[in-house]
Specification:
Number of strands: 0
Number of domains: 1
Number of helices: 4
Structural class: mainly alpha
Helix content: over 70%
Largest sheet: none
Radius of gyration: 21 Å
Length: 95
């Protein structure tokens, strides 16, 4: 039963971190868009600026690597939740 609780907490954390990661990617792109003195859409689509597309793609990849590293690192919440679930189950089994 404790493995099931650990799995549920792990899935919950993954969903939350995924949503946070998507929001961070959007914020990162908005920051890029704000600080560029030109229209990114016009440069990439109309002027066919391939180098700008590569640079923007590289920045987005960099942000996604950071977010993925944060998501994949073990958190204390899942370990403490798993330990708490195990202690609750052991207490119930002793009764």
């Amino acid at each position: 039963m404790s493995n099931l609780m650990t799995l549920v907490f792990g899935i919950g954390e993954t969903v939350i971190y995924s949503l946070v990661g998507i929001v961070m990617m959007g914020v990162g792109f908005l920051i890029i868009k704000i600080f560029t003195p030109f229209s990114i859409k016009k440069e990439i689509e109309d002027d066919q600026n391939t180098s700008l597309g590569i640079i923007i793609g590289s920045i987005i990849l960099g942000i996604s690597i950071i977010v993925a590293a944060v998501i994949s690192s073990p958190s204390t919440l899942s370990r403490s939740a798993g330990a708490a679930a195990t202690s609750v189950i052991q207490t119930q089994n002793q009764k």
